[in-house]
Write a structure and sequence with these properties.
The protein has eight helices and seven strands. By secondary structure, it is α/β, with parallel strands linked by helices. A seven-stranded parallel sheet has the order 3-2-1-4-5-6-7, with helices on both faces. Strand 1, helix 1 and strand 2 form a beta-alpha-beta unit. The mean pLDDT is 94.
Length: 259
């Protein structure tokens, strides 16, 4: 299916690897010109080269910290009029809320709530003027079903979700949609790092821990990053103009609820 977005311009945050890279890859394959950013220049440039090699839209990369004003300004200087914005940032560390001080909370809220809001603020009016805009916020399945040890993430991402719920209903009449894309367990470096840490605290190997966790997912496996990227590309498509304010789970059926 032709998604009708060839020639559009996109900003994809935290796109040097994992789910962000998959989103940038899927968009570029559809002919979208993508601007990707991440903190580590070497990894980011390698990702840009990989995406370019696949053909499709143009790819430009900028190493920065998107959670800072300077980082956001640098990205917007490189791509001042995006038609597509994919907000993404690494989640806060797990832990016990008793151990978190104000600085921990401010850092989590800055990265996972305020940064997406400020990027939307900087880009949404241009999308409205052009009568086309697709904003996808990569959050977490914990928005639907909180994960006890991820309290910082639960709180910050839920705050973003609540804010978007109102805004998305105002922009859609201008063909500007805003949706959340909620990943479950995907086979990424972050997941493997968590599995390794868990194995280190038990008598099981990393492979055994991975197999046990995958077996608990109805699909019987972890998601593949490209599956997430393709879902993101569809939400950014011309055909998805009637989808807004939604929190779209992609978790292999792991969330047990009906709503």
């Amino acid at each position: 299916m032709d998604l009708g977005i060839a020639g559009k311009k996109a900003i994809v945050c935290a796109a040097s690897k994992g789910l962000g890279k998959a989103c940038a890859t899927s968009l570029a394959r559809e002919g979208v010109d993508v601007t990707i950013c991440a903190r580590t220049e070497e990894t980011l440039n390698a990702a840009a080269d990989e995406i370019r090699a696949l053909g499709g839209g143009k790819v430009q990369a900028i190493a920065c910290d998107i959670t800072t004003e300077e980082g956001r300004a640098a990205v917007l200087d490189l791509c001042p009029e995006p038609d597509i914005l994919v907000n993404n940032a690494g989640g806060p560390p797990p832990g016990d809320f008793r151990d978190w001080d104000r600085d921990d909370w401010i850092k989590a809220v800055d990265a996972n709530m305020l940064t997406p809001i400020f990027l939307i603020k900087s880009t949404v009016d241009g999308m409205i003027d052009r009568k086309f805009g697709r904003i996808v916020n990569i959050t977490s399945s914990s928005v639907k079903a909180p994960i006890e040890i991820l309290g910082l993430s639960n709180g910050a991402r839920a705050g973003l979700t609540g804010f978007i719920a109102g805004l998305a209903r105002k922009t859609v009449r201008h063909n500007v949609t805003i949706n959340g894309l909620l990943p479950g367990a995907f086979d990424t470096d972050r997941l493997r790092s968590n599995l390794k840490a868990h194995a280190g605290k038990s008598n099981a190997t990393e492979e055994e821990v991975a197999a046990q966790r995958a077996a608990g997912i109805p699909a019987g496996r972890f998601g593949q990053a490209y599956e997430f990227g393709e879902y993101c590309a569809f939400l950014c498509s011309a055909q998805a103009g009637y989808i807004t304010g939604q929190n779209c789970l992609i978790d292999g059926g792991n969330y047990p609820g009906t709503l």
